Amino acid sequence: MSIEIETVELEKVSGEQKRSGSAAPSVAPPHAVAAANDDMSDQGPKGRRLLGIVFALALLAAIAWGLHVRAANEAAVANATQAAAILSVSVVHPVEGSKADDLELPGSVQAFTDTPIYSRTNGYLKKWYFDIGSRVHKGDLLAEIETPEIDQQLDQSRAELERMVANADLAGVTSNRWQALLAKHAVSQQEADQTRANYIAAQAAVDASRANVRRLEQLQSYERIVAPFDGVITARNTDIGDLIDAGSGSANPRELFHMDAPGTLRVYVAVPEVYSDLIHDRDSASLTQDSNPNQTISGTIVRNANAIDNATRTLNVEVDVDNAKGVLRPGAYVFVHFHLPAPGNAVTVPSNALLFRSEGLRVGAVRDNRVQLVPVTIGHDFGNSVEITSGLTTADEVILDPSDSLANGMEVQPRIASQKGQS
After folding, report:
1. What residue segments make up the domains of the chain, in order of their start?
2. Nearest residue to 181 (alpha-carbon basis) of 167, 199, 195
């Protein structure tokens, strides 16, 4: 009777385990098995047979559970092996547009008018009135030069002019008298003509003497060094008492002052030949400088050389900048940005996405988790990135650092990589 009760309890336990969803084999509690053994041993052969059946069922359940676990592990290993066999690749999306629309080139700022100021006469510097950094206006007196030799020559020339004028007056009176005597036939025609020629020669001598006086007066006026335009004194290379040599009379003349007109600045830029056809006069440009990188200065392309330099293979382009506010200084090193038109279908991809194959340049694109080697055309090479003018769109996923074994149709697992620094 006790055996039946224990059997019923085992069946209840097994039913509860099945209802709970447990996959573990149904095994009787130890105390139940021990009680069953005691009862079965009391029942004789019939009890021993029942005990054998219970143990056989427990053994079969344990074997079935082991086979189930092993099969599950083998399936997991197979899935992991299959997943590992698929190549994982880093991909990026091409960037719309191209960096070709912003060509950045270095340039040096120059004043629109940049002039060294020399002396046109010899002498000694008497006084100077402006130093470096001074803003001057056209006609302002910069310095004075003492020219004693020129002063003496001018006085001598003026005295000589007075003598010539007196001689000419006398020759004129004599000529008039001889002409009156000729009318009375008191003198010969030859004598009258001679006095007339003497008068004309005396007048020519007066004119020559006057010209010499004007020349010396002009040289004397060069004693005053004046500003030729509105600007800034950027250098002063003389001082009081210096011996001054005329700029045209010395093999190595020394400039007294140097002046710039910073109101309008010009920047000369060497544009590579490949971009020369995209540069047009009156197009806009912008300037930046390292000393103030957040400031953008507007400029205008005013002219270009219309010829490629044979040595550098570049086009010399002039950009003018309105510098009324003085934001730039002559001589500054700047970067000039030319806003060039880019092809409408152009995209930019990293340089490490290119594949060089015997059949031509290719890019590995992932479409439906399959590799497709796409032929592409390069527009411009920017170093770490390239402009692609045909073959790709911004919707494509481009493989970075593709392996040489990459082939069409290969299944891959794409993962999006960072595009920092690509654009």
Report:
1. 2-85, 89-97+344-416, 117-244
2. 195
* pLDDT at residue 44 greater than cutoff 90: no
Domain 89-97+344-416: which topology? Answer: 2.40.420
Q: Is the pTM for the entire model greater than 0.85?
A: no
Q: Which of 258, 272, 260, 269 is nearest to 320 (CA)?
A: 269
* Rounded Cα–Cα distance for residues 293 and 418 (Å): 26
DSSP H helical ranges for 115-188: 148-183
The pLDDT of residue 214: 92
Q: How confident is the model at residue 100 (pLDDT cuts 50, 70, 90)?
A: low
Whether 375 and 421 have beta carbons less than 8 Å apart is answered as no
| Residue partners of 26: CB distance under 8 A and separation at least 6 | 10, 13, 14, 17, 18, 57, 58, 61
pLDDT at position 105: 92
Number of H helices, E strands in the chain: 5, 22
Rounded CA-CA distance 332/108 in Å is 6
Task: Give the integer Cα–Cα distance in Å for 370 and 107.
Answer: 48
Considering only residues 296 and 250, tell me which one the structure prediction assigns the higher pLDDT: 296
CB 113 within 8 A of CB 231: yes
